# Entry
Amino acid sequence: MKTSGIFFLRGRPSSVRLVSPTAGWVPGWLFSLGERTSHRGVAGFTAIWRGPEADRFIQANPQLRAGHCLRLELDRLHATNNELRGHVVSCELAPPRWPEPEDTPATPHGAESAIENIAAHARMAGVAADFHH
# Structure
């Protein structure tokens, strides 16, 4: 079974030695991943990536840590000891922030913007509001 999507790291990838029926012990990387399943839930699972491409990715991205998002394609999904596991086919860093659609007007961000928006809505509703920031 295959799947692909955006998953977040639950910890730093760790180096492991895996048993291969043809090559004996081979080096690889273990990714502890999470996927948001609803507004309240997160499903955890493990992905295994071996080979020179995995080593290059880890060496090129030493900053990887819990919370970073990855765009993954996984194959051979299976359950082992009540845990879902899969093998990485391809992996790339997801952007730190999704780009805004081009037709979306720019809006200010942060606490000041939130306070200004609350105050504007209160004035429109005829409610006296005094926000200090």
